[in-house]
Prior knowledge:
The complex is a heterodimer.
Chain A: H1 18-28, H2 33-42, H3 49-56, H4 64-80
Chain B: H1 3-6, E1 9-11, E2 17-19, H2 20-33, H3 37-52, E3 60-67, E4 73-76, H4 79-91, H5 95-102, E5 106-108, H6 118-126, E6 131-137, E7 143-151, H7 159-213, H8 217-231, H9 235-247
Antiparallel strand pairs in B: 1-2, 3-4, 3-7, 5-6, 6-7
Helix pairs in contact in B: 2-3, 2-7, 3-7, 4-6, 7-8, 7-9, 8-9
Amino acid sequence: MIIDGAPGNQQPAFEPDPRRLAAAQFQRANLTVPELWTYYCGIGGSADELVLDAYLNEMMELPPLQVDLLHTAIKEITADGT
Amino acid sequence: MSEEIDTQAFQYRGGRTESREDFILQLQDLILDSSDIHDFLTDMATIIASRLSHSGNQISCGITVIRHKRPTTVAASDSRAGSLDELQNSFGDGPCLTALRRETEVYVPDLEMEHRWRKYTVAAHAANVGSVLAVPMRLQASAQAVAILYSPTKQALSSHDIDAAESLTTMAAKALDLALNIAQLRAARDDLAAALKSRTVIDTAIGAIMAQNRCSRDAAFQILVKTSSHRNIKLREVAASIVSSVSGEREFPTTYDE
């Protein structure tokens, strides 16, 4: 990304996108999207699988609660070691 | 399929005649009986090995399956083939992996004359292997598999034997495809059943929090998520303890139980 100081570029350069963080953790967990979605749905998540996939690919935003639930899901699965 | 192909029989030097149909029936029984992929592969490798062995040439068979985002599964008809397959995967190179990458069979009639895969050939030689044949199995599922045959003697397989091995693995690949599909569906079903169970507990706890705090569903969820991450306890367990503190129930049956 080129930061040229132009107005409208509101993203601070060193604040990592939480989506990128989630995507990296998801990659490390060696999971498929359906597996992640199933777990996320099991803890009360309400976004569908396609939206989850889009979020992880930085193409869509999720409501804050759904973001928290998704991160919780990834954290819990990783802790299980599955 | 014509009558002629159905009843075509394999004739081995050992004098044993077994039909294609027998092999297919055995494979079908395996699919129905095996509880997991590893058991299935082990039995399949054993059958293939015994079908290709004849007096004076004892063949061992190993099968390696590589699935997307899953650990590699290795199964073998005996411990010799099993340990050699594991070894090859740990080296990251060998006839079996070459066959996978090139999608064609690899036959090494004499391991002593083989200069590829140096580490592997040394290990295989130490395990008293003379010749090796690796045959890739074509699968529709998002997985790759290869069958590998080990013989203690050099030049152990005639072109006839190689044809027989290829035709066996082609049939075995179909059975493996089915078994992989069933395993994948079963795993997805188990995950969904677990998710439904966990969600029931969590939704009940959300209701309890909403009633106690007079808050919205989202706010109740936030409380639950925060509690879980602060105490480093799983969301489902926090929810279960909330439910049991309200009603005294620890476990409650869900309608999704079979």
